[in-house]
Amino acid sequence: MYMTIALVVATLVILTILYAVIRYRRRNGVAPREPGVLRPIEGVWIALVAATVVVLLVSTFRTEDRVDAVSSEAPWTVRTVAFQWGWRFTYGGTGVSIAGNDQRPPALVVPAGVPVRFELTSRDVIHAFWIPELRFKRDAFPTRATDFELVFDPGVTTTGRCAEFCGLAHDRMDFQVVSMAPERFERWLRARDARTGGGRT
What we know:
The chain is of the alpha+beta class.
């Protein structure tokens, strides 16, 4: 919708400029005649601009509500804590908690094809949870938690990053993302939980 409206507006502006250049150009040394005030046309133009702004605002908020909607049926919840300069991923209902830093990035292992709910927060300053391959980014704030859901394709192995400058080691604040079939993910989670004895790693 934004692109369509932008193209229409650009076309109208270009045509208006071309019309003014041709219609009111200087001819045979005669100064061009200034156009009179066309209040009805100006009123229509203002109304069109206002209507366009309203349509874009309503569309934007509706889209954000749809994208930000969090269902109560997500089978897995990952509590994600950002800190200078690393990440901690804690899997709800288990004792599995994986942490890393700028020298040893952690791995975010997720099931593929099902909604995964994230509860994102920060321990110190503002960070940003960013997975470029998914074209998804969300800020992490130290004073509040942000909930969102993602669905991962099978066989994804990619890198996530912090996209908010947060200090001297910001450029090394990465994490790995690995998606696997839900059955394999559950086996991985049980094995990790058993190996850590329900504690944190």
